[in-house]
Amino acid sequence: MSTKPVIAVVTGTGTQGRSVCAAFHQSGRWAVRALTRDPAGPAARKLAEQGIEVVKADFEKKDEVLNAFEGAYAVYCVTIPPWQTGYGNTISEYDQGVLQVDAAKAANVKLILWSTLPYVGPDFLNAGGCELHDHKAQVEGYIKSQGIASVFISPAVFAENMYVWPMLRWIDDGKKLEFWHYAVDADKPVPFVWAERDLGSSVLALAEDFQKFESSGRSLLEHPLNHTIQPVGSWRTTWGNIARTIERLTGVPVQHTIHPNVDERWHPDLTKALVYQNVHGFYPSHAFPPPVFVNLGVSFNTLDDFVVQKIVPLFGKDTQR
């Protein structure tokens, strides 16, 4: 029987979950338990083939989440807005979060690694708040009230969106690329995280620093990063600079387009989130990469690294149109 500490990862097959599972598993120091609604799906099967334990759990059923959390030292918790298609969620992100925290407490989990976003609040532009951000942020207070050690990890904008949404497409009969996005001005600084490469390694560094702290005989609740918000980002740049970088590294002319909102594509709440990025900024006073993680030994990738490895193979001048 393994004596390695267990980390349970909610939505282990998602963008965040896959990165966290990979980092902990590849370290060789942790047993990883990926929670998913569909253990027979291709993403879950790929995790299982790597030797990661895959557990079926409905994230709206506390007994299933509790069962999946049993014996875990740490849990990585993620919530999904009920309006996001493909997941079938019926309860709010706040209620999802409370359920996960209650399950973690009942399972005697020592450390909650909570995926959050900045609090927007109802007064911002008198827009009534932004559920995508606010419900996640409000769970932070609930975690504190339960007396469980936790770090509130706030991922920056996923760089992967560039090819997952996708935000790049051929135009003019394959003579140039259109790089488009929503709402945010071309010259507005935005932090990005290459989730696949940099999110999981950051979470791993935090968890192991808490372990080291506890091994010295101190309570995890006394850790200096306990109950703090820790943004995770690989670099800060502008959408306009990304377009120029793609053009430089692919060798293909890039036309940059901004769409004013996303309501017709997805949901008004996402428009609010992007307007918040444009007006307020996403952690405008924080440095990226974050010194906290750099000091923990995390090596972050650059925008050039990302474009060369992920965009050029798809849209470089030598790719087939």
TrEMBL record:
Q: Name one Pfam family in it.
A: NmrA
Gene3D superfamilies from the UniProt entry: NAD(P)-binding Rossmann-like Domain, UDP-galactose 4-epimerase, domain 1
Q: In this protein, which residues make up the domain named NmrA-like?
A: 4-215
InterPro entries membership: NAD(P)-bd_dom_sf, NmrA-like, NmrA-like_oxidored
User: What UniProt keywords apply to this chain's record, in alphabetical order?
Assistant: NADP
What the record says about family reads:
Belongs to the NmrA-type oxidoreductase family.
Query: PANTHER family, alphabetically?
Result: NITROGEN METABOLITE REPRESSION PROTEIN NMRA FAMILY MEMBER, NMRA LIKE REDOX SENSOR 1-RELATED
Question: How is this protein named in the record?
Answer: NmrA-like domain-containing protein
Report the source organism: Phlebiopsis gigantea (strain 11061_1 CR5-6) (White-rot fungus)
